[in-house]
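Render this sequence as a predicted structure.
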Amino acid sequence: MTGYTPPGWPAGVHPPDSEEFESTAVTWLLDVVPPDYRLHGVLRRYPVALATMARYHTKACVEGAREGYRTARTELAGVLPPHAIDTVLAAYHKEGARLAATARAVELIERALRGEVFSAKMNDQRAAR
């Protein structure tokens, strides 16, 4: 693999300037969205359409996790013991971070599929040290 990939670029997806970029991006995106998305051949034929749908899906997942986190104590009070609610909140926190990172990675893939070229910036180089 050659080429620059920005921070947050998903593992397993080749850089945008490589021959395998589109195929690895489609494979990764299909793992991000619900399995039934695989039934729609148009999404494989037009990866930018898949990326767009994945962006909306991951954004909704992040919002759902945030809403769940905000309401968990109220919704689960009296149903779960306090220590279990704390554990649920910790799960929301961990999954929320994972979902947010995935949503950012989907946005990067979509931008690359739309032709954006990424280049290293001074902040990226300092963070890599």
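Summary. The mean pLDDT is 93. The CA atoms of residues 26 and 46 lie 9 Å apart.
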